[in-house]
Design brief:
single chain; 6-stranded mixed β-barrel; two-stranded antiparallel ribbon; 54% helix
Length: 418
């Protein structure tokens, strides 16, 4: 099949040799533009993949403590019919598990040290079905949460901050007290520390207290569970399933999924990711628009060739097409090279980063400072495809002006001194 001559000439100009000093300089500038596009595309893919990785790590650690969906009664009251709510929730085919709970705030005191905490009353038998970290505690601390013994399991950071160990007794201060002639007296209850947990999420490790649901109901004077925690087969369907449950559940309940519980954090991550995308796209834009200078010099160098083609019958559109092909080839090769480099690093960052740390005797994410001590990466098609398209579009736009200049060359003027 005979290829269009515009494509053949454009490709020939792209890989032009260095027979003269001028041709060599043009080839060098073209190579720099190609390298700049490749590095810009690779940097975009690597940075976005690492940001996706960090977001996934934090999300997974968060969801190891937080259930996918929470159903609770308004104003912190007890659910009217917990058994019916559990039956209706479990009837949904996309629900993997459900467990009742009590959630309230309290103070935890030991001597003069006092910390604000979130107390979660759970059923030790059902809790492992809705949270991952409870599965790890199932055969350890959770078995020691026995109704009537008022044992508690503290987050590791909270236990260390208060200096308590297994078997120590601490005082739980309920927010609503008893009304006496002397005023409101807070309710105090001595509880025993029967275990600790470390979920990897500082907010919960430093402020969450687990106790048996029956004990929590007695301490906080509740008639029963205040809500139901739900685990789904696919956490990405939480918003959709939550809307279904809100329509189907009987009684007055509030349904909240994990995306709404941490909306501010996820919104902040998306803003940061969007800004990094814009900033790094400027690198690709600078490299792409280097093609303008490359093609302008090529057009100046090939004026006689352009004039000869015009005298042989080539139209201005064909001349323009030749240089569009040349610039587009640089953009395509640079983009493909950047994709290969970026994906190669993104998929192997768990090998590359430790090798660099060993080479430079440094730690990029020290364990004593950061909760995540390894560099995560999660390349996603939704990020990679737009990067490639934007790179190609910018390269194409950079070819338009020099190509138009080439199409306007006057053959008589170009050949006058030849």
């Amino acid at each position: 099949m005979q290829l269009p001559y515009e494509l053949i000439l454009g490709w020939r100009y792209t890989r032009a040799g260095r027979s003269t000093r001028r041709n060599g300089f043009i080839s060098f500038i073209s190579g720099v533009s190609m390298l700049g596009i490749a590095l810009g595309v690779a940097a975009l893919i690597i940075v976005l993949s690492v940001m996706n990785g960090f977001q996934r790590e934090v999300r997974d650690r968060m969801l190891s403590v937080v259930s996918h969906i929470e159903i609770f009664a308004p104003a912190g009251a007890a659910l009217a019919d917990v058994a019916q709510t559990l039956r209706e929730v479990r009837s949904n085919p996309r629900v993997l598990g459900a467990a009742p709970f009590i959630a309230t705030q309290a103070l935890l005191a030991r001597g003069e040290d006092m910390k604000g905490t979130v107390v979660r009353g759970i059923d030790p038998a059902l809790e492992p079905g809705v949270t991952d970290f409870a599965t790890e505690l199932k055969n350890a601390a959770l078995t020691r949460l026995v109704a009537g013994e008022f044992g508690v399991v503290l987050g590791g950071e909270l236990a260390r901050a208060m200096g308590v160990r297994l078997g120590d007794r601490v005082t739980l201060v309920a927010p609503s007290g008893q009304v006496t002639p002397a005023g409101v007296v807070p309710r105090l209850k001595q509880v025993t520390v029967v275990g600790t947990f470390d979920s990897g999420h500082y907010e919960y490790d430093a402020g969450l207290v687990l106790m048996h649901m029956d004990d929590a109901a007695r301490v906080f004077r509740l008639d029963g569970p205040t809500g139901v925690r739900v685990k789904l087969k696919d956490l990405q369907q939480a918003r959709e399933v939550g809307a279904e449950l809100a329509r189907s559940l009987t009684g007055e309940v509030v349904v909240r999924d994990w995306t709404r519980q941490n909306r501010t954090w996820f919104a902040a991550v998306q803003v940061e990711k969007r800004m990094m995308f814009i900033i790094l796209t400027l690198i690709v834009a600078v490299a792409a628009f280097n093609l303008v200078s490359t093609l302008v010099m090529t057009v100046t160098d090939k004026r006689s060739d352009i004039a000869i083609l015009r005298t042989l019958g080539a139209s201005p559109a064909s001349i323009m097409g030749i240089f569009v092909v040349q610039g587009a080839m640089v953009g395509v090769i640079g983009t493909l090279a950047g994709l290969a480099l970026g994906l190669g690093v993104a998929f192997n960052i768990d090998v590359i980063v430790p090798a660099l740390e060993q080479l430079f005797h440094a730690s990029f994410l020290p364990k004593d400072i950061y909760l995540i001590s390894r560099m995560p990466s999660d390349p996603q098609q939704a990020d990679i495809v737009p990067v490639a398209i934007i790179s190609l579009v910018l390269a194409f736009l950079a070819t338009l002006y020099p190509s138009w200049r080439a199409s306007q060359v006057n053959p008589a003027e170009a050949l006058r001194y030849e």
